[in-house]
Amino acid sequence: MSKVLTPKSRRPSSGVELDTVDEDALEHPEAAAVAPSSTLSTGIVATIEAGSDPAQGLKPRSELTARELMREVGAVLRMSEAEAAKLSSNQTDLPDEDQTMIINMGPAHPSTHGVLRLMLELQGETILRCKPIIGYLHTGMEKQAEALTFIQGGTNVTRMDYVSPLNNELVFSLAVEKLLGIDGDIPARAVWMRMLLSELNRMSSHLLFLATNGMDIGAVSMMIYGWREREEVLRFFQKVTGLRMNHNFIRPGGLAADLPMGWRDDVLRLLELIPPRLEEYDILMTGQPIWRERLQGVGVITAQEALALGATGPVLRSTGVAWDLRRSMPYLRYEDVEFDVIVGTYGDCFDRYAIRLNEVRESIRIVHQILDQMPSGDYRIQDKKITPPPRMRIDESMEALIHHFKIFTEGFKVPEGEVYVAIESPRGEIGCYIASDGSPTPYRMHMRAPSFVNIQCLPHMMRGGLVADAIAVISSVDPVLGEVDR
Amino acid sequence: MAATDGYITGDSRGQATVFATPSTYLKLMKALLDDTFTTCSDLCAVDYLDFPQRAVPAGVTAERFEVAVNLLSIARHERLRVRVEVPAADPVLPSLFDLWPGTEAMEREAYDMFGIAFEGHPDLTRILMPEDWDGHPLRKDYEIGRIPVQFKGVS
Q: How far apart are CA A417 and CA A434, in angstroms?
């Protein structure tokens, strides 16, 4: 296959200019043979000349340093200098560049989960190099956080990983509480409510993964089923928080409100509804030869590599490392509930699928225990400094009204210091680093987004695989681009 | 802990921290990697331009930038935060890519947002902002952007 030349000076954000393909075919007749393929794909995948992008894109191999090349071919582990030199100078490992072509996938591609863009170097259908390019959903949330008070911060962080918003709020609240020094004083009911919401959120997030994973692989009916079950969970969230997503319900000091009347019945109904549906998924997918063929042995990563890359969550557990922060470094009251940490063996896409499917079952187990142990009491800390007065008091007390007004306009001051708090989100370790200068706004708020780190595994998992498997690999990492780009 | 002997250690709300300088940084990190800290959870930078009076332990010179690296020891279930003071005049640190390849994206982010260069990084380009962007957005002397309003100033 000859190298495909397509229009130059294409900016990464400009997407694909289909109309220019023809002109180009005239200039370079040898490209005409390949042009239909890029038109057929309705402009979603287009071939691109190596180096036609600015520095962020995939460059021709000759312009790369040995280490950059190592990274793009997925050689993440520490290599000796000799090995690296061999790889870069002879490139014995890779065919000549005129045998290969560079393909741009995304950023607007239905199966790349939002606006993830990949540049792939292919030989035929085999992926030789891969470079994920991100930033298309960057909205400066960390900068914005510096202008929002600690009370307002929740509305900001909840929008990062919009598939598991409650976990984002939780980690932010835990970090603020640690800075305030009240992390040990949160009422028991608030702690258990947080666990309940966090686990239900894990279920909804994993159900969404099952849906999108099914869609990416071609099991389109699974997409409908996954969204259907997730919607049931979101309906409960709507009843509790008033919103399906972006709740801002878990706040520093506790929660925004108590659980509504009849919440227990709603949760029990969910817990009855979902397990038989999971059995259906097993019949529909887990045992199916097509499904297994499509995922088993695809996108393999070893434990060593996953650890070196900082991968967490199902990606790490699929390699056999039983690392789950709920178990290993318990927060909230996870040491008081029984559950199993699901681990895989092969580190392939199938393991990651099976882990998430079974984590839904474990979450159901945890939620049952939470229902049994949910204490009564207050749902937020009664600390006048950070808790607004109850609504009833505002009507009868001028001081309460002023207090309420002050808390929501000025916010509360948080003592100087810096903390890093991490919890297990459905995607892995989500961490919140806050530095405070003693004012009511964070001096710096940084989120360690699990998808941002996990996405670095893509070149490694894709190396030597097929383009069609690339979709399965992206899907199995389950990145949420809102949190990757923040 | 043997690996942090000779370094200034601190405690931030019960979380272990250790301070390094740009010159001792890489040596300390190597020692920590050998001391079972096999995972680098997070690397982020802070611009302390507006907060120079912040409290640092005796012996540490507060500089404009600080890079905080959160390490995790899976073997010992332990976390440790390494804080490095990076002077504004020479915002350069050695890259941790050779020790923890997973820091690649994080260092690129710190470079993109703060302009801290990481020597030895394989691909030090902007990661979140467009390649032709001016300035480093998370620096404190960088204004929050605004959407121009058509009828402002009418009141």
A: 8
- What pLDDT does A82 receive? 57
DSSP 8-state assignment for residue A431: E
CA distance A311 to chain B (A): 8
Is A118 buried (19+), middle (13-18) or exposed (0-12) by CB count in 10 A?
buried
Q: Do B130 and A13 touch (CB under 8 A)?
A: yes
B24 touches chain A (CB under 8 A): no
Q: How far is A415 from chain B (nearest CA, A)?
A: 11
Encode pLDDT of B63-114 as tens digits.
889 999 999 998 889 999 999 999 989 899 999 988 888 898 999 999 999 9
Chain B: closest CA distance from residue A98 (Å): 24
CATH 1.10.645.10 corresponds to the domain A141-448: yes
| Per-residue model confidence (pLDDT) at position A90 | 47
Tokens 């072509």, residue? A101
Among residues A57, A78, A51, the alpha carbon closest in space to that of A132 is found at: A57
Q: Using CB atoms, pick whichever of B15, B41, B142 lies closest to residue A419.
A: B15
Nearest Cα of chain B lies from the Cα of A37 at a distance, in angstroms, of 29
The minimal CB distance from B122 to the residues A71, A329, A455 is found for A71
Which residue in A91, A102, A137 sits closest to A116, CA to CA? A137
How many Cα atoms occupy the beta-carbon half-sphere of A233 within 13 Å? 28
Residue type at A61 in one-letter notation: R
Domains and CATH numbers, chain B: 8-119 (3.30.460.80)
Given B13, B100, B130, which is nearest A417 (Cβ)?
B13
Residues of B (73-92) whose Cβ lies below 8 Å from A: 74, 77, 79, 81
Chain centroid to Cα A274, Å, comes to 23
Q: CA-CA distances (angstroms) from residue B52 to A17, A22, B85?
A: 50, 59, 12
What is the ipTM, given to two decimal places? Answer: 0.91
Name the CA radius of gyration of chain B, rounded: 18
CATH 1.10.645.10 region(s) of chain A?
141-448
B13 vs A178: CB contact, 8 Å cut-off?
yes
- The number of residues making up chain B comes to 155
Pairwise CB contact (< 8 Å): B13 & A486: no
Tell me which chain B residue has its CA closest to the CA of residue A434: B46
Best of B33, B43, B127 to substitute, by most chain A Cβ atoms within 10 angstroms, is: B127
Round to whole Å and give the CA distance between B84 and B153.
45
pLDDT along chain A (486 residues), means of 10: 35 36 41 38 49 67 72 61 55 67 79 80 85 87 91 90 92 93 90 93 93 88 90 92 90 90 92 92 88 88 88 91 90 90 90 92 93 90 85 86 88 91 92 92 92 89 86 89 88
